[in-house]
Design a protein that fits this description.
The chain has 13 helices and 13 strands. By secondary structure, it is an alpha/beta fold. The protein folds into two domains: about 220 residues, Rossmann fold (3-Layer(aba) Sandwich), CATH 3.40.50; about 180 residues, Rossmann fold. The strands form two sheets. It has a seven-stranded parallel sheet with strand order 3-2-1-4-5-6-7, sandwiched between helices. The radius of gyration is 22 Å and the shape is globular.
Length: about 400
């Protein structure tokens, strides 16, 4: 197949799992003989398009974002969205006419608008989508309502600025990263009732070699969180729980690896400051250093308060031989089984988190079983080969349906 991947960011410019998975799938499909070009934004380039990278790697950084990722989202920026959509539609049309792909594969369109999808539709090129988070809700057609504000929004976004929504686009070929995500998108007005569920994998799984003693325990015990420092990730719950454990005489250390907004990061640092010998905030850790970081720890904690689409870090921790303690709101609940491959607790329930940590720290057999079952699950169900096989079949089915 001749494919064009459309995505808001592409390595080396990344926010998280979406971009890493996109690059992984692209590389594997190229290895399998497909021709894959990437159309992405100029984020991180200073607005300068480098023809050399395009010629060498088929990566075209000529799209625009509505506003940078270090600027808070504002759905009210309709003019920026309109102008960005117009630009991206024009740029995409030029590339698609030149490359003439069989299919466009859309990854994250967050802050990118739907200009690429509309350009593909204009040219009669089918589009397949992979949805790994809730960003499609931002493009849902607003429902008609009788109240003045509802009517105004329906008229503005649903009629006058329809090109900024999914209106008129074909979403019959979509894949979601979990059943939970699919249900939330449908409930929010995104018509993906029949979307295929394709669970992700551990990017670069060969790098995540399990520690020699899965389920082993250091003294002091080493706890770990990896991820973006955002309030809904619940890291404050974890810090409070560790403070309580320390106060009770437990010998534990916590490493928090990640970056986030200055105000929330400052809040976490203030909580941890009196316990600096036991709680370390490292900031963002380069992807190349993550495998070693995981193996240096015993228990991975995933304390999210929100409904996660799925998650990569708990899979990476399992692949590294760590026991996992986690909440189960969202897609990762489709993989975690309490007492088998993880210990689970309700979101923001600090007593329950403390109890789960005490249990996993005190019970060697439980800790070892949880770590080994998690490792086995990742090796069986979340491999790169399985993930790319399913996406390749999905793309092939999309193309077949279009030609049919």
């Amino acid at each position: 197949m001749r494919l064009v991947f459309a995505t808001n960011l592409y390595p080396p410019h990344i926010l998280g799992g979406y971009e890493r998975l996109c690059a992984l799938v692209r590389d594997e499909l190229v290895r399998r003989g497909h021709e894959v070009s990437v159309l992405t934004s100029d984020h991180g380039t200073g607005g300068v398009f480098t023809g050399q990278e395009a010629a060498r790697d088929r990566v075209y950084r000529s799209l625009r974002l509505t506003h940078p990722f270090d600027v808070p989202a504002d759905q009210g920026l309709r003019r920026a969205r309109w102008e960005t959509s117009h630009h991206n539609r024009h740029v995409a049309a030029e590339l698609l006419e030149r490359v003439r792909p069989d299919l466009v594969f859309a990854w994250s369109q967050l802050r990118l608008t739907l200009g690429v999808a509309r350009a593909a539709r204009d040219l009669g090129i089918p589009v397949a989508y992979t949805f790994n988070d809730e960003h499609p809700l931002g493009y849902a057609v607003p429902p008609f309502g009788g109240k003045p504000r509802q009517l105004a929004r329906w008229l503005l976004d649903g009629v006058l600025l329809r090109q900024l929504t999914w209106g008129g686009l074909d979403l019959s070929h979509a894949a979601c990263i979990s059943r939970s995500l699919r249900e939330r998108l449908v409930a929010g007005g995104v018509p993906v009732d029949d979307a295929r569920v394709i669970y992700q994998c551990v990017p670069g799984e060969a790098r995540f070699v399990p520690r020699d003693d899965p389920g082993g325990l250091h003294d002091p015990a080493r706890l770990l969180f990896v991820g973006q420092l955002l309030p809904y990730k619940g890291v404050h719950t974890l810090v409070h729980a560790v403070v309580r454990l320390l106060a009770s005489g437990r010998r534990v250390r916590l490493t928090v690896a990640g970056a986030g907004p200055a105000d929330y990061t400052a809040q976490l640092k203030a909580l941890a400051a009196p316990f600096a010998a036991h709680i370390e905030l490292t900031g963002a850790v380069p992807p190349a250093d993550l495998p070693g970081l995981y193996r240096q720890h015993d228990v991975f904690v995933f304390p999210s308060l929100g409904v996660e689409a799925f998650g990569l870090t708990f899979l990476e921790a399992m692949a590294s031989g760590l026991a996992v303690v986690a909440t189960t709101g969202g897609g990762h609940a489709e993989a975690l089984v309490d007492g088998l491959n993880a210990l689970t607790f309700p979101p923001e329930d600090m007593p329950a988190l403390i109890a789960a940590l005490a249990r996993v720290l005190d019970d060697h057999e439980l800790r070892r079983r949880v770590a080994c079952e998690g490792l086995d699950m990742v090796r069986r169900r979340f491999t790169t080969a399985r993930y790319v096989n399913e996406l390749e079949a999905f793309l092939g089915d999309t193309l077949h349906a279009h030609r049919g």
